[in-house]
Structure formats: C-alpha cells, structure tokens
Amino acid sequence: MRRLTAVVPAEEQRAVAELIRGLGDIQVTLAAAPDAVDLERVDVLWVHALRGLVPGLLPWLEAGGRLLATLDAAWLPAELGIEPIPPEDLTSHKSASGLPACLGLAAFGSHPLFEHLDQGTCTWAPTANEARRGVAYTGNRPKDGAVVAVASSGAELDPDRAVAWEYRVGQGGILCIGAFVHPGATDQRFAPQLRILLQNAIAGQAIPHEERPSPSRVWPPPGHSVQHNVTTALPPTPSVHGAWGASSSPLAIEAGVDTDAPWTLGGRRGFLVGREQHGLQEAWMHPFRVFRDAGLRVDGAAVTSTKIRLAPEQVERAATTSRGLVIERWSTALEVPALFWSINGPEAASLTATWTTDLRRMWPYPAGACGDLLLTRDPDGRRAMVQAVGDPFRVMFIVDHGALESRTLEGPAVGFTVRAAGHCRLVALAGADEADWVRTVQMLDRRGVPGMMSQRVQHARQLASYATGITTPEPRLDEAFEWAKVRMDECLAGTPGIGRSLVAGYGASGLGRDDGRPGAAWYFGGDACRTAMAQLAVGDRDGPRDVLKFLSLTQDVRGAVASECTTSGRAWYDGMDSTLHYLLLAARFAAWTGELDLLARHWVAIRRAYRFCCESITDNGTGEPGELSLGPCWIPALEELEALADALGYPEVAEEMRNRIPRARGASDCSPDGWAGLEDWVSGRFDAGLARWFERAAFVRSGANQAIAAAQAALPAIAGLWGVRPDAVNQAVAIQPWLPPGWEGMAIERLRVGRSVLDVRLRRRFGQVVARVERTHGPRIHVEFRLRGVAAPSSVLVDDVELGGARAGFEADGHHVLIWRD
Known about the structure:
- This protein is an alpha+beta fold.
- It has 16 helices and 47 strands.
- A hairpin with a 3-residue loop joins strand 28 and strand 29 (413-421).
- The longest helix is centred in the middle third of the chain and has 33 residues, at 434-466.
- Residues 624-628 have low confidence and may be disordered.
C-alpha cells in the first residue's frame, strides 16, 4: 500500500478528498500546512496550492520520496535550490467570459502522467469570475527540469507555456503541475480526467523515481538549427536498383493538363500531394512531413507538365522539354513508410531535382517542435539521413544514378539537390523508431523497389476484383464507383503508437500559411464512421474493423468517442456526432458482416458510448446547448443496436433501448442518411437521387481525395439504386432496386452480406423485368426482393413458381430467376 499525505488548504480539503477517494491501493492523510507532515510515514507527498517547505524534504526525496507539487506548490523546486530559474506566478487574476471552454495539458508523446489519457487532456472548464490560479514557464523553460506538458485548449496548443515539468532527485523525484488542477471547480465536467491524471501521479508512475519503468517522452527545446553528424556512419540499406514502368491499371485517368488541379496518392504510412502542372508538392510519412517545395529542372529550366496520368498505385506526368520528353513517376509503399520518385529523360539531359525536408510534425505541434535536426551523409553523395534530436523518427534518402547535395536552412530544415544525367531514382525510407526502421529496410531488401510497386498493383487489383462492383449504362458511374473504393482505401492510415483508422482526406499544408495541416489527413471520428459504413456496403471490411478498434481504444473516460485525433496523437472530444456515428457503425458492422465475435470484444466500449449518449442527449434530441438535433443518428442507432445487444446476449440492454426509441422518435423524425446523399432515395425521389449521384461521381474522379466524397459516390449505388438492407446476423438481406427509365439493365457483383456473396442482374425484357440472383460463395441466405418506383406488378415468378404480390422471398442457394409481369 502506498502512503499519501496531501497538504491542501483547508477550504479545498473536502473537494480533494472527494476527488482522490478510491484512487487505488493508497492510504490517505490530509494536512493543512507543510510543517504538519511527518515524512517518515509518507511514500508520496502531494502539496497543492500552498507555498512553504516541508522539513527534511530534500533528504527524503534523495532517499526515494515522490513529490507532486500543484499550482502554487510548483515553486518548490526553486525554493529547494534544485531549479535556478523559477516559474512565473499567474495567481492574481480571475477568469472572464470569452475564455476557452476547456483548458488542460498536452504531452509531447507517451508519458506515464497521461496513461489512459492519450497524449493530453482537458482538466478544467473555467467559468466567469472563477479564480484562475497557478504558475507556469512562459517563453522560457526550467533549466534543470524536463518539460512534461504545455498548456492546451481542446485542439490548440500553447507550446510557449510549460505547465508541467519534472526532476529526478536522487532515488526519488518531483512532478510539478502548475496550472489547471482545480478539484473544487464550479464546472465539474472534466473531473474524471483530472482524477485519472492525479491517479497516474499518486498511485502510478508519473513522478520520476529510480525504478520508473514506463517510457517518458518530454518536450525537447524548440529546434532552430541543423547539426551535421560526422561521427556516426549511416546504417546499411539494400539496393534501390530496378525501374518500374507505366501503370497498366484500366482505372487510370489520363488527360492533357489544362489546369493546375491537385492530385494525391496515399498508402498506409504516408501520402503524396501534388499539382498537375508542377508535380510533387509535399510528402508525409505519418506524422512527419519529409518533402516540401519539390521541383525539377531540365538543363536549368523549370518543367511544366503536358500530360498527367493518375492510377491507383502511382502518379505519372510527362513534360516536353528542349531535350525531349521527360517522364516523372511517384508512388508510396503500401504498408511501410517509403516513397519513390523516378525521373526519365533523354540521356543528354541535365536533371536537377530539389526538395526541402523539415520534419514538420503534424499539427497542432509547431514547426521545430521536435528540436534541432541532425543530418548524416555518406561521403559518396548517395545517401543522407535526417533526424530530429527530440524524436526517434528518421528518414533516409537514397539516390540511384545521381549525386545528392545538401544545405542547411532556417526553420530548421535541410535543402536537398540531386543532379543526374538522363535519368535517376530517389527512394525515401523512414521509421518511427528503430524497430519500425528495421521493418522498412527488411521490406525493401525482400521485395526491392519493383516488388514494392508490384505489391501496390496487386492490392489495387484485389480491391477491384474482391470488393463489390456495379455495371450500369453509365460508364461514368461505374468508373466513379471503382475510384470511390480506391479513395476510401487510400484513406486507411496508421501511425505507430497512435493507431490505424480512416483519415478524412489529403491535401497540401496551410491556407496562405504553413500550419502543418495537410488537407484533413488526420482521424475524424464521425467522418471515419461514415466512410467505414460506405466501405461495408462495397464489401471492404478492413477499414471498418480498424475504425472500430481505433475509436474504441481512444474513447475518453466518459465514454465519448474522439471527434478528431491527429496522427501526432492529439485527440479531443467535441460534441456528440462522433459517438453517435460510432454506435451506428457498430450496428451496421453487425448487419453487413455478422462478425459478432469482433463486436463482443468491443462491447465494453460500445456500451460505454451508449451510456454517455444516454446521459448527454436531452429529451428534445439535442446534446450540449446550441448543438444541432442528434435524433437523426440517435434513433437508428437505438433501433439497430437493439438487435446487436440481443445477438450478443444482453437482453436487458436491448429492452432498455427499445424503451428509449419512442421518446427519441417523438423528439426528431429526420432522416439519418442526408450525409450520404441517400435522403432522396429514402423518400422516393429517385430521379433527384440519381442526379445527385452523378454530381458526386464527377468529383471523386478528380485527383483530389476526400473520404466522405468517396463514400457519397459509393453508398448511393448500394443503398440507393439497389436498395440493399443487410441482416447478416440472421443470414438475410433485402434488395429493393430502382431501374431508371431508359436503362435496359444493370448489375451488381460480389454483394457481400455475412459470409455469403451474391451477383444480381436486372433487365427489362418484353414488358417484363427479370432479375437473376446467383449465390457465388458462402452459405445460403434468405433474400427479400422487390422493385421500387414501378406500378405494382400483377405477379412475380421465382424459378417458375408464381407468387402473389410484388415481393419475392426465397432462400438463395444457387442460381435463381425472378420475373415481374406487368
């Protein structure tokens, strides 16, 4: 049992006692003054909002004692003589209206203070005229202490204000949290987060000591310069010889360049952003930018594209120069952080490729957040590695058929130039840490550059042939559907130590300024769920599985699902949208896949999210004041989760959900499908739904990548045009297609419901409508089939058996023919 003595002002002792009750295996003693503490009976000392030394404190620390100093007590290291630079006093003023809705602490990475709190948390919601007390380092840093956290407000950081810092003292240590620790705060909404923060300090490993086992990342000093490493040789890397050619994908978009439209290409660990005329702009390997301001000159003249070709696995541009045709190709590896840049021109052409590497960490971290850069080069000018002093991430550039030059830039940054004659190739390899780096190098060694490109080609072919496909009389819709599958799949991205989920989309950084936001290339909870639901409909289940896992693991202590989480690890929880769509995704995942074992593993998180919604959503269907109606998601979530709860063996939860549905429906009767462009299909406005689908299809065929736009180009085909409603838990599916006037027929292939796969073809013939349904894989499945948007037929035949009414129900166990007679 750990013995805690908390030295707390008398007026706050009740609030402190309530907050730390039941924190673990600890014995608590409260004291009102430092001189009342008997350190011989103390393992952990917490001094809160008081100045003054405890007698014998320094020897006690050196012998292994642990001190938590919060608010005014954060002066203690200076008063003990441990820290020569004292913090600033921020005690005197009160908070006023207009302050952020929440204030808290942001870590630089994994630290035991933030266990179960991602990489930071809000701990205080200030109210008007509430005293804002505390101390911090503003514009400077402790000289001998390590900065654990800076101030934050939701998504935003204040990197110049250190609010938590720590010291090793002999066998013990001190953790100071100078701000935002208010056990008696008027608004208690962040009390659960504050409680966990204190638990990590008091009962966990957050306070430095001799045997602290957990990794403890701290904020490095801001970077300003590039250091040249001349003492350490670069690690060995495999050969990067071997060219790759033009894409053979039938899905490629090839066009002359009339505008400078953007293009993107994503892999699991990174992505490229460019423009049609000017080529590559940026490259990111989550969560760092490794390329910016890329360019190519031939014989000293800038190159402008004349033709661009976008394929699922690479981007190619052609340019006509005075020397002849120059072709550039760019791609990323599928699963590891590696990218490739190939330049091929006339043998006599002088090629100069340039780019800048600044290792900008994904927002909200500022430029230079990881400290100074370290540059290591091979003497022969073939390889160079860039690392940041404060982070284990590293990137190596390897040149084939060219010479690599470098120069240091402000920022800090490194400017690179490759000079070659006729042709050259550049490979960039990265690793988030040593183990990740080794995996990347081993992949290159095993496959080589052509093999890694082939892996992307094979993945694209598998996505095209395994996932659902459609055939219509409109090739634009069919092609857009295939591109939508590719775009959604490209948005599945992972960062070691953070997780893997769907990002919202890719783009270049900044809108008029470099703010470290490349498009929307981070994890949005609601967008990820909506995109994952579209992936389920097209038979792609990898993304939805990862989204469910990621959002389950990043839930906050209340059960709320992250509204946003950057690839650098900063998460926040604004509003209810993400939590509701997480519940809806869980239900839709069951309906499409029937994988109850996976949902059972996430049931604790699903149930916590459900409880959070029950406590937060009012009877009129809204959440926090000013929030839009939540009924459109809450109602279907309740309706569909009820069946899931029953299937998983929780009848009491299912009954509770059933009882909530009428009240929620009375508060809101809006359709939940507006985000997907399905509202017209649901309400029977089929022509309008088709027109909207054409609009979405045109956008997704461009070079831009937005996950929701891709979802809105895919889901209307399955849930709108074909009207598919899956029920994999009960091994059933409803198919209710609308055959547009003027279309002679249409087809859907590889429709996946549970473990069953169906092909369906629909066509008009001699005044009749004929459907052919074939089960091509998996167990038999019950099909309910009816036509929408047509006058009621006189009868329907299923395998030559006439049925009354317009609806046909049958067990799909092979090949079946349905005929509707006028």
